[in-house]
Amino acid sequence: MSLQPASTDIATRAQSVIDEFKGLEGPLLPILHGLQEEFGYVPSETVPVIADALNLSRAEVHGVVTFYHDYRNHPAGRHVLKLCRAEACQSMGADAIAAQISQALGIGFHETAKDNSVTLEPVFCLGLCACAPAAMLDGEVIGRLDADKVEEIVAEVRS
Amino acid sequence: MTVTIYVPGDSGALALGADKVAKAIEAEILAHGIDARIVRNGSRGLYWLEPMVEVATDAGRVAYGPVSAKDVPSLFEAGFVTGGQHKLSLGDPEKIPFLAKQTRLTFARCGITDPVSLEDYEAHGGLTGLKNAVKMIPADIVKQVTDSGLRGRGGAGFPTGIKWKTVHDTAAEQKYIVCNADEGDSATFADRMIMEGDPFVLIEGMAIAGLATGATKGFVYIRSEYPHAIAVMSKAVEVARSAGVLGKSVLGSSQGFDIEIRSGAGAYVCGEETSLLNSLEGKRGVVRAKPPLPAIQGLFGKPTVINNVISLASVPIIMDKGAEYYRDFGMGRSRGTIPIQIAGNTKHGGLFEVAFGLTLGEIVDEIGGGTVTGRPVKAVQVGGPLGAYFPRALFDTPFDYEEFAKRDGLIGHAGITVFDDSADMLKMARFAMEFCAIESCGKCTPCRIGSTRGVETLDKVAGGIEPEKNLALVTDLCNTMKFGSLCALGGFTPYPVMSALTHFPEDFRPVAVAQAAE
Fold this sequence. Notes:
CATH class of the largest domain in chain B: Alpha Beta
Strand order of the largest sheet of chain A: 2-3-1-4-5
CATH superfamily of the largest domain in chain B: NADH-ubiquinone oxidoreductase 51kDa subunit
Number of strands of chain A: 5
Largest sheet of chain A: 5 strands, mixed
Number of helices of chain A: 7
Strand content of chain A: 5-15%
Number of helices of chain B: 22
Helix content of chain B: 40-55%
Number of strands of chain B: 16
Distance between the termini of chain B: 72 Å
Family (chain B): Belongs to the complex I 51 kDa subunit family.
Radius of gyration of chain A: 18 Å
Keywords (chain B): 4Fe-4S, Iron, Iron-sulfur, Metal-binding
CATH topology of the largest domain in chain B: Rossmann fold
GO molecular function (chain B): 4 iron, 4 sulfur cluster binding; FMN binding; metal ion binding; NADH dehydrogenase (ubiquinone) activity
Largest interface: A-B, 42 and 65 residues
Cofactor (chain B): FMN; [4Fe-4S] cluster
Order of helices and strands of chain A: HHHHEHHEEEEH
Helix content of chain A: 40-55%
Strand order of the largest sheet of chain B: 2-1-3-4-5
CATH architecture of the largest domain in chain B: 3-Layer(aba) Sandwich
CATH topology of the largest domain in chain A: Glutaredoxin
Radius of gyration of chain B: 24 Å
Protein name (chain B): Formate dehydrogenase
CATH superfamily of the largest domain in chain A: Glutaredoxin
Strand content of chain B: 5-15%
Number of domains of chain B: 4
Number of domains of chain A: 2
Structural class of chain B: alpha/beta
Distance between the termini of chain A: 34 Å
Oligomer: heterodimer
Largest sheet of chain B: 5 strands, mixed
Shape of chain B: globular
Shape of chain A: elongated
């Protein structure tokens, strides 16, 4: 975690996100979602700014940021591909699909391709269990993954 | 007359290309100069037929499916806007056996109406329950819900009316209604479907809960993996607010009630009610010890009703048709209907709402139609990642809270994952432990440490290292987790592990021993 004061730019942008949600009851998660939308991740420099605004310790804010799988501490690739790893998708061959995608992209889960094209993340259930195996590419849902759809996905993230 | 064409906007349909189908239909409408409009309805829950497109004709609705964008020109050539025959014709959707055999109470409108049209909602019987509730005293609303026999559909099966009564009886300046829409269990999608397909029924249920308990503020905590549900719910809340269903006065009554939509952040454990409350408060989603009960000290320390989506969405029909009407469905102490979700390796995957009491075999073999791969069913997991694996030998178990408990299983949120004979049950048991380790909130030791030790020990079994000794250790560990964990995550992870071990012992024999025996 940076001990330097937040750079003015990040601090200013963070402050406007914080101001937007500060009035809510229990505003921390909405603020963190807002920051991730603004920056693509939750920059560690924003932690003291949040702590100050909500009258919390930096440790408390850090604790919350690191508890949830959604919040990243560094930017993701240009595309984010989430592959469902849960039971219903496993029953339809999700493990083989994951191996295929991982090989095609040259990265494992929680990794970003060297050319920064894509980040591969596991997800435990997208609620598409009756059309498994399922994935989510940049927020778009994809069901019944097969070799053809994998090829399309790989082509899309590389374009 | 304008023809109405329905193309589901449900995530499951979108995942199978519904947006492309809608676009193609729009292009054809323009090209042919047809007077038609497209409604993005919810899904009827017949996912093997999605995207299922419907046309409203003079003779009623006619369905086609599964439609892909490339089928659209030929559908227009076949005159589908007037219900013309096509190779994808399904006829009257209500007569498709999978739908005809259901009893749709909670999902009565799902897939039929325009999800964000309040006029449509009212035209199909919506708001009648809330209108009745507005005229009643709070205690009578609570009594009607109690008398209906409705139990929490999130998994625990606790009587909904009793929760409400506790909040009703606890005096406080501020009370809350929290809807648990953190539907993280694999094989479950009922909450997602109702939020995307009939959001007003949930809003109506929450407003009734508010009137019954004196709560004026509601939160819907939706998992971030459901962006479409978040979008539809947010839109529906706006519509309800501008129509006076929500706001300072609920339908002109003296009580106000408003709803805020909140997004989770990818933590499975936040589906546990107390960790959800912590998460809403902006804290780590760590489980709280009970007591105090959330009904007495819940969100921000205030009396809080926390109910699952389906529990709340089942309330409007109870307030509309009466407690007896709802209670007359079901068996034993499991009253009313349950939306069963059939998923995984199944021919007819989807949502099947029916009174309690069907046997597991009827659901898997007759309704689900067996596996899509055509191989024999080896096991089904009922109740999500914390539910037990059932072998075919237990397929006579009726779908009922108590009957499942007797067989060391649970209904949970009523999701069923079907596995064919290629499933490796040792691998599935290991996955259960691994999942628990990934998602544990870390508060209690049996869950936090036990799950990691469980993975290591099952890896030893898989590697053929002292299998008997290590399986005894796993059994002992499961016992500790079951009785020593604070919540269902650590406490129920032993269900999939032990059921796999008990019913499929052959999968736990090391390869070397298995080969030697052959």
